[in-house]
Amino acid sequence: MTVLLCGSSQTHLGTQMPSGGGHIIKAAPDYKNSIKEAISAIEAVFFSINGSKSKSLNEAIRKAKSDGFLLHPALEKGILNIYGWTSDENGVRHASFEYGGAVGENQARLMLVLCACLLNFIISSYQD
């Protein structure tokens, strides 16, 4: 199983990246959508693990854990906090995004790298 499990991905510098990477390398980068797609890949992998879509990432993680997926509470909290940055009422995924008015390349690259690492961790942990 690879990152392809959770949808399209792109090879970037020899590493499987969530499809949001394509938004960064365009002539007119779309950093906000890059972030949206990167965090959506985290949701998708948990939905895939669970075999169904949940109402929220929190619910999806709880279901995976109840089915035997092992995730340290501090790591779970970290994933949910990263998700919260993108998904709360002022988050990147919403029209009312208020983080200085825009996101830039640094935030987009951070999310791509974090989410790619999390995807690899979650998938390999699930396989164990």
- How do the strands of the widest beta sheet line up side by side? 1-2
Mean pLDDT across residues: 77
Low-confidence stretches: 1-18
Q: Which quaternary structure do these chains form? A: single chain
User: Main beta sheet, described?
Assistant: 2 strands, antiparallel
Topology:
Blueprint: E1 9-12, E2 15-18, H1 21-24, H2 31-50, H3 57-66, H4 73-87, H5 105-127
Antiparallel strand pairs: 1-2
Helix pairs in contact: 2-3, 2-5
Entry summary:
The protein has 128 residues and is mainly alpha-helical.
Features of the shown structure:
two-stranded antiparallel ribbon; 2 strands; mainly alpha; disordered N terminus; globular
Structure description:
The protein is mainly alpha-helical. The chain has five helices and two strands, in the order E-E-H-H-H-H-H. It has helices at 21-24, 31-50, 57-66, 73-87, 105-127, and strands spanning 9-12, 15-18. A two-stranded antiparallel sheet has the order 1-2. Strand 1 (9-12) and strand 2 form a beta hairpin. Helix 2 packs parallel to helix 3 (57-66) and helix 2 packs parallel to helix 5 (105-127). The protein is globular and about 40 Å long.
